[in-house]
Amino acid sequence: MNILHIDCSPRPESHSRQLSAAIIEALLASAPDASVIRRDLGSEPLPHTGVEYATAVSSAAAMTAAADTAWKLSEGVIREVEAADVIVIGTPMNNFTVPSNFKAWIDQLLRVGRTIMPTPAGKVGMLRDRPVFIGIASGGVFTGEAANQPDFLTPYLSAAFGCVGIASLQFLPVQATAFLDSTQLAAARDRALATIDLTALARAME
Fold it and tell me: 20 to 30 A Cα–Cα from 178, which one of 76, 143, 157, 189?
């Protein structure tokens, strides 16, 4: 089994990195023979899509060397996801949603004709479903009665992954990190990890 491990925070010891590492540890306890492929968007961010990418995805345009490079970058991201049986993501919540480096990765993954097929009834995903465990670190609170900020992150990721055919998302948030001490943070991580549903992992191992 192959696990794709993605981190988005630029901080080496961030709460989201600690959470994603703990998720990986929990998965490896159940699947010790699994291999882990690492993509660190915090330390090695992908370029945002620009004119070269637009040229590459336009069937009417002649492919330039720069467009070919942009195409291959997108293809590499897609193939990395295709090769993964499970995806683990650690991300902060930045300004109510995903950080821009994570958005850049998503923009490389979502490509009409390759991972998305438009139909009269709407977009249809072209990738097979697989479990995605998303560890979220938020300085504020975005769920429950104590919520003090909106959440555009979880609905956005559900829609983005859903349109390529990946619907089995589990969100594991650690909230109020700006107000918790180290003991409280450890307890919050433990509570998040306790919600992991490993039945999806078992199906991925079949």
Answer: 157
